[in-house]
Every structure is written in C-alpha cells, then in structure tokens.
Amino acid sequence: MRRISQLPVIMQRAGMPVRAAVLALSDLVAFLGTMFALLMGRAAFGGLDPALYHWVFPLLLVAPFLGSSLGLYRSISLPPHREMKAIFLLVSLVYALILLVLFLSQAGDLYSRLVICGGWAATLVTLPLLRTACVRIFSRLPWWGSPLLILDTGQSAKRLWHYLRRHPQHGLRPVAMLDLPGDAAQVNLLLAGAARRWPGAVALLLPRAGLQQRVDYVTEVSRHFAKVIVVPDLAAGFRRYWLTPCELSGVTMLFLTQNLHDWRRLAIKRAIDILFCILLLPVVLPIGLLLAVCIRLDSPGPPIYRQMRIGRDGRLLRVYKFRTMMWDADAMLRECLARDPSLKAEWERDHKLKDDPRITRMGHFLRKTSLDELPQLLNVALGHMSLVGPRPIVVAEVKKYGPVFDEYCRVRPGITGLWQISGRNNTTYAERVAFDHYYINNWSVWMDLWILAKTVPVVLTGYGAY
Questions:
Q1: What angle do CA 46, 49, 55 make, to 5 degrees?
Q2: What phi and psi, each to the nearest 5 degrees, are found at residue 384?
Q3: By C-alpha distance, which of 208, 139, 206, 134 is closest to 172?
Q4: Are the C-beta atoms of residues 329 and 341 closer than 8 Å to each other?
Q5: CA 23 to chain centre
Q6: Largest Cα–Cα distance in the chain?
Q7: CB count in 10 Å sphere of residue 44
Q8: Could you report the per-residue pLDDT of 199-240, keeping only the tens digit for each?
Q9: Quick one: which of 144, 113, 116, 105 has its CA closest to 12?
C-alpha cells in the first residue's frame, strides 16, 4: 500500500506527467462508466443485449489521445471556458467515431439510439464533473502539477507565487524564485544547478529578467529546461486580453480575436437566451406566482419592483425584480445614511449595504437564493438583457466604471456574469468593474455557457450573496 501511495512521486521524479495521467484516467473512467451505466439501465427494461456493444468499449480508449490533442492535459490548464469547448469537442468526436463505425457496418438498426445519443449527452455532464472532483481531491497534494521555477524576485513574481499557491488547480506548483545575474556564465551555472535540483520543472521568465540586454535569457533558460513560460513585456491594458501566439516571416506575434464584432456569434448568444427562456418558462411561472404571494403576505406593497438601469448603447431600461425591501426603501435609505456615517461611506464605496435594514424577511431569502432576479427573464425575452453579461448599473454608478463604461455599453447587461460566480458581494467594486471589463474583452459563446454552468452551484450555495 505504501509503494502505491508513493507511485505518483516516483512518476514525477522520472519526468512523467502525473497530473496529465490522472486527468486522462478520469476522462476514460467517465466515458467507460457512463456507457456501462446506460447499457445496464437500458437492459433492465428488456429488449437490449449489452454484449452487442462489446466493441464500443475498446473504441472509447481513444478518448485520452484525442483529449491530449485538444490540450486537455497540458502543463498549464486551459481557461475554464476553453476547457468546456475542448470537452465538448472530445465527447462529440468520440461519439462521431462510434456513429461512423455503425454507418460503415450497416448495422445501425440493431443498436439503441437512446444508448448512443444518451451516452453523448450524459458524458458531457459526467466528464467535467469527474475532472472537477479530481482537481479538488488531488490539487493540494505535493505531486499534483509541475514544479515551477520563477526567474525573478520582484513584486510581480511574488504576487504570482502567492496566486499559484492559492490556486493549485492551474497545474503549476512554485518551488523557488531566482534572480538572474547579468553575466552569461553565472546565469548558465545558476540554471544548471536549478535544473538538477528540480528535474522536469517549468521555468517562468518575467519581463523584469529580460530587461538586461547583455544576456539572451530566453536562450539560456531553454538550454536547461524543456518547458519555458515567457511573459511578454506588455502594457497593463493588454493583460486582460486572451492573446494567441502566431508567427509571420520568422517574427513572433500575438493575435487578438474580438468576438463582439461577429454577428454570427451574437446571433448564437441571442438564440441561447431565447431557448433558455422557453425551457425555463414551465418551471419559473408557478414558482414566480408562489413567490409573489409570499412577498405580498410578508410586507405591504407590490411584489414586482421596477428600477431604471443603463443598458446597451447607454439606453435606459426598466429592470424587473421581486421586491426584497420595504415599500418606502428610498426614504429609509436617506434616513439611515444621514444618521450613520459608516453606512454612508459603505454605500458610496460599494453602492450596497452588507447589513441593509430595508430588506424584508422574504427579501433575505430571495437575495440569498438569487430568486429575486427571476422576473428579469422577461427583460431577456424582450431583448433588453441577456442571460450572461455585466450586471445592469444605475446612473450613479457610471462614474465608478470610468473609461470602462464605454465597454459596458457595448453589450446587453446580464442576469448572471463573471462577477457573480467570482465572489459577488465578497469582492470590491473595483474588482467587479475589472471582471466586467475582462468579460467584454474576451467574450465568447463558450464563456457564456461556462458562466451559466458555474451559476448553478453558486445559486445553490448562496456564495457571495447577502
């Protein structure tokens, strides 16, 4: 048993990618386990012989190889929305291969469409869930991820060190920070010793180390490390963009895609909004009626609250919400702010109050569960809002957005967004603006789908709500 527990450490010392092996095994278990469960479940109702599907399981073994080609097992994990896209492509390619075999064999009528189509749909759920479980279970263990050598000792290096220590799920485990000298011979000696001490480590070269032109640091580091991360020396504004490296005429360049200019992607985003509204209507309508009755019984006043907010292109729109405050909330706010300077400072800083005296008993429940925002599905259906986007702001908040307000006006505000799944009210207002700016600059359909998927556990746990 002890030798088994030491196996990951032995694999890591031998230079084998333990994290990649664990994730590949997790994906394989998801494929095989889901197919097996569906076959057994379908066979329980009769009319299906599981032995007929014996050839499907060996075919599923190609999944890790396809996953590797899609970047699912890289040293540095993919961004969550790009990982979701890669998982969708992986599952679809594997089941497309199964359908191709059925087509070529001309024996498709012998097989259950429910098993094949259901296997595809179910694996799209089980595979990311199992990957997430693996990351949460193993990411804190010492053998998870690649050791990272940060070749700098400045403030940027220290911030990166602490960030990666707090977020081991990215697959990089900082082991040391080294300041590179200005002499090539000393650099070579230092790096040779580091490579011997941390075999298989990834070296990260920050711009500060590359400012001294007497030494070609990238070349020197590449002599000793197989994997090198070079952080480009870009202005701060560029750091919120997803840039793709490319090469033209021997020159390394960075490619930026701005999806907000693509009407086809915007049409898909709108189609997703409409589809979700239609699917949610049978569930939301009875729940909404029940909540409206409870709100009315809890406190006097109409159950629906309308407020003027700023939408796309800076236009004003009426946003619908279930009322969570007393009917005379505005007067109560003015009285509270005049009476308590600390509350006034909190309101001016965050435009929210953590312990808001205006909130009703039903309002606390609605905010904790985010059910107060259900009526905004009407805004989505009317095209004033989207399911995913920046939260709609009031006129008084425009100055807090500063130059980012122009970016905010490019998109429809959303019911949920990057801020809501990243801490919500546990974050500062400046962080909220930064989340919105990042979302707008890097928006994609896959990012929206990832945010929608992450919204479910956030709503269920009430994380960041008050």
A1: 150
A2: -80, -30
A3: 139
A4: no
A5: 18
A6: 80
A7: 8
A8: 888 999 887 544 555 778 888 888 889 888 888 776 655 667
A9: 144
CB neighbours of 114 closer than 8 A, spacing ≥ 6? 38, 42
Euclidean distance between CA atoms 135 and 114, whole angstroms: 31
Residues of the chain with CATH 3.40.50: 146-233
User: What predicted TM-score, i.e. pTM, was given to this entire model?
Assistant: 0.82
Residue range 146-233, CATH number: 3.40.50
Which residues are registered as beta bridge partners of 251?
248
**Per-residue pLDDT tens digits for 85-110:** 999 999 999 999 999 998 888 777 77
